[in-house]
Amino acid sequence: MARHVSALFRHPNVALNSMSSVLHQWRGIRVKVRNNNLDQALMFLQRQMQSSGMERLIKNQQTHHLKNSEKRVLARKNLERRLRSQDLARKLKAILCKKVRFQIIS
Questions:
Q1: Do 31 and 48 contact (CB within 8 A), yes or no?
Q2: pLDDT by position in tens, the chain (length 106)
Q3: Which of 10, 8, 9, 26 is nearest to 18 (CA)?
Q4: C-beta contacts of 66-72 below 8 A and 24+ residues apart
Q5: pLDDT for position 54
Q6: CA gap 86, 92 in Å, rounded
Q7: Do 31 and 41 touch, CB atoms closer than 8 A?
Q8: pLDDT for position 7
Q9: Cα gap 23→56, rounded to integer Å
Q10: What is the rounded distance in angstroms from the CA atom of residue 30 to the CA atom of residue 47?
Q11: DSSP string covering 59-106
Q12: Residue 30 and residue 28: Cα distance in Å, rounded?
């Protein structure tokens, strides 16, 4: 930290950017336990992690062996998701084109 403070006087703009990244790394989710109610604090922590997307990041970082059947299931789900998204995009495009044509004609 002292290194960042000394760098602040030499190169203020560069030092502030690096210092903000260091402070950003220190920041996290903090939960206060009130009246020894640990269950409530854990529920609050879980909600905070879900809303910040941290829970999703942790799940994605977990590396464990996937069986071939699990890989196939995941691949099929990804394919279905992608096809559904493309289908919705195609429908939305058709709707927007109809609206544009209708506005041009009217």
A1: yes
A2: 555 545 555 555 554 455 555 444 556 788 889 999 999 999 999 888 888 888 777 777 777 788 899 899 999 999 999 999 999 999 999 998 888 877 777 6
A3: 8
A4: none
A5: 81
A6: 10
A7: yes
A8: 55
A9: 23
A10: 12
A11: HHH------HHHHHHHHHHHHHHHHHHHHHHHHHHHHHHHHHHHHHH-
A12: 6
For the record, the structure tokens of 83 come out as 């096809």
Question: Letter for the amino acid at 10?
Answer: R
Tokens at 102, concatenated: 């209708």
Q: Collapsing DSSP states into helix, strand and coil, what is residue 37?
A: coil
- Return the residue matching tokens 């269950």: 39
| Structure tokens belonging to residue 17 | 């950017």
Structure-token pair, residue 37 = 């109610």
